[in-house]
Each structure stands twice: as structure tokens, then as C-alpha cells.
Amino acid sequence: MKRISLTQHLIEQQREHDTIPAELRLLIEVVARACKTISHAVGKGALGDVLGTAHSENIQGEIQKKLDVISNEILLEANEWGGHLAAMASEEMETIHPIPNRYPMGEYLLLFDPLDGSSNIDVNVSIGTIFSVLKAPEGMHAPQEKDFLQPGSKQVVAGYAVYGPQTVLVLTTGNGVHCFTLDREMGSWVLTQRDMKIPEQTKEYAINASNSRHWHAPVKRYVDELQAGVTGVRGKDFNMRWVASMVADVHRILNRGGIFMYPADAREPDKAGKLRLMYEANPMAFLVEQAGGAATDGARRILDIQPEKLHQRVPVFLGSADEVARVTEYHQK
Ligand code: P6P
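Above: inputs. Below: predicted complex with 6-O-phosphono-alpha-D-fructofuranose.
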């Protein structure tokens, strides 16, 4: 594949599809640069005094790791001066973050999980950044939470970075899913996979199986059938993976197929699973659908869900289209 930079790719996409105006290209390049900075910080590990907890809690009531806070700051600082955003929202911040008055306000809203998979930080397992871009409502002057509450189908950009053996950036602007690998010597993002596609069939599933006694019947039935393998109705054996970093599991699925599940379960009946709609499920659903896969909450297409709260959670079933259709059908029965 001809090795082109992120900038050249975005300009070529703009020429071909007219979907990436200059302000949006700037936004993507600024976020990509911030992911480079986060990758650098993550890569220091114990040498950089970045491991361990920050002795603070986030809105989710989760203890923040130092790198959660550092990554959040990196994204805020990188994006607030550029004039391309009206406001930002993050898993690590209770309320939205309007652009300070000293900077011009743009027409986009940026949402992110600055460092997803925090339980893996201190043990050197892949983690990542997830981000989503919406357009600010017409005529909006002072951004409020309600301006962010748009269904995932309104996203104009979604992407993630994985800080793993390689640092990769996976991006969609609505015309396919493309992967860039960080060339650390040059400090540049290089296009390494164009138009990623998820196989409709798979032999791999991802779920935290330690919760199986809490699963509702449709999930229990679906996973039991996978585990029965050739001896059961599926007639073939399956393999299981669970990284406990959504970005790593989704990246594997985009590369070789699979189904990722984080269902609601009986542990907390009024809690709709663990993952957040606005900055985890929605961006990943946009990417997965653009790669020919599917993403539902067990009943509805994730991208059709009308959000009610910025940090609301949602059950997630995403990946190979045939498997998502099957487990979703089981929920209808
Ligand atoms: P569990 C990471 O904390 C995360 O939000 C996702 O990245 C990941 O898929 C999930 O939670 C892991 O959850 O319950 O297995 O630790």
C-alpha cells in the first residue's frame, strides 16, 4: 500500500466525498496529535511517574488513574485554542467543558474517553482513547449538555487510538474505516489499512464470562450455544478473548471478526450495563457499521438511541453482523 500521511488521506477524502471541511480536518489532526502525546506518556510507564492512582474519583465513581487525568488534560489543552470546537465532554468530567471565552468558538462538539481500559494501565496491557464528533446545533451560542444529546447516527467522525505493541489510530468520517500506524521516528501517522471490513461470520467472542451467573436468559442461551461448540446447535467450536480494554477487543474484531458483548445483567437491575453510550458505544458502533458489522443494545441499533443523559450507560453487542443479529433475535423472544 502506498504510504500516505493522515493529512494527505483526509485531503483526498475531502476531494472525493466533500465531507471533511478544513475545520473538521483540523479537529481530526489535533486529536491525532493529542493521541501521539498520550501514547508517549503511556509508554513511559514506571519511568515517568505516570502509573498508579490519582487519588481522585470521576463522575462514574471510579478511582482515577494518573494517566486518566493526564490524558484528559492533554485532550483538553490540545483542542481548546483551535477555534474548531464549541465544547468538549469526557468520561472523566461530570459536566461539559465549553471552550474558554478567550478562544473563538467552532461548530463541532468533541466527546471522548481519554484513556479506556484503565485497569490495564499498571500491568502493561493495551489501552486506548475513544472519540466522537458531533455538529453543534444550528444557532447554538452557549453550549449546554442538551446540545450533546444527539443519536449516534449524527456523528460526523468517530475513532480510537490503541496504545499497544504498535500505536494505531482507526478513523471513520462516514466513508469506510481506515487505520494509521504511528511512525515514532518521524512522529507521523501513516495509512496502513484502507477500508477495513469485519467478516460477517466469526469463531471468536468477547465477554467477561465471570459474570455468567448474572446474565439474563438471551445472553445465557447465546453464550451456552457458543460454548457447546460442535456438540451443539452451532455445529462449530468458538474461541474466547477478553482484554478488558474495549479498544483492544474492537480492534481485533475489525481485523479478524468476532462479537463483543457487555450486557446488562442481574447484578444491578437498573444499570444498563457498564459501557457509556456517548463516548464508548456510539463511536465504536459507527466504526463497526462502517466496516460492515452491526451494533445493538440487544433491542435497538445503538446509533438510533436518543440519549437522555451525557454519561448514560447502554448494553453493547457489536461485531460480525450475523452474530449480532442472532443474539439480538434471542432478546426478542
Ligand atoms: P470488566 C474498561 O474499564 C471498560 O470500560 C472497557 O474498556 C472494557 O471492555 C470493560 O470496561 C471491562 O469491564 O467488567 O471486564 O472489567
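DSSP finds eight helices and 15 strands in the chain.
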